[in-house]
């Protein structure tokens, strides 16, 4: 994985909706729920894997712009592993997905928090720090999240009343994303507080995309699945992309590979081995094995990124 900084990978918080809130499993709930520490580590794993998935896809697009198709494919394949394997398997162990109603209720609560508290606060911080462009972007996203909250609320009422099953236009239409390109560029913000808020926002949007994607994949009602999928696309292709541009997340391919190597080495040598040791000590053998396997995968990713970097040199 890779983050805005080495520390951000570990401490970046998704304040929209704490993953530690019990939400069920992506396919089948674990027989024994993980210990509180293991749950915390699973939450952190999902947060980082979601951010890696989103970041690597932007890095892949940059590699394509530089006419480096093999590097672009490497970033894309790794992004697929981070989301399709690492995030998904941690989601199953932690219990992420439940019924449509429970998933909609959790999503609505998260979007309400973002639209009424988190993003308005970030906008005030950015304005106070002189980052007017970021303040405008945060305010725009707050309005979008308010729309998502209302849509999730309406869908929840339709599901709970049974109207979602009878059709008749009871379910709201899914939002449509307007994808934003993110070429390499310097940060567009100056204040440290704005940078910190951006880091939290980026992790939150990446995590929202990954979560909503899982909710969509396991939706009991096709209309609920479409709603989650549409919201997921907005979170990734509009919100994350716009914030990534403000943060200067994408550099040239050499810089992107360098960050990727550092992040993957940290995970393989420090983060996941620590998680595995703690899980083993807590008796969470499934999680311990999962973390150990992830450490091996990330070591392989680090070697592949380093090889690509060496070839560029």
TrEMBL record:
It comes from the Bacteria. Keywords: Signal. Residues 32-163 form the Ferritin-like diiron domain. GO terms for molecular function: metal ion binding; oxidoreductase activity. Residues 180-189 have a biased composition (Low complexity). Residues 1-28 form the signal peptide. Gene3D superfamilies: 1.20.1260.10. It holds the Pfam family Rubrerythrin. Residues 23-46, 161-193, 281-313 are annotated as: Disordered. SUPFAM superfamilies: Ferritin-like. This is Rubrerythrin. It comes from Nonomuraea wenchangensis.
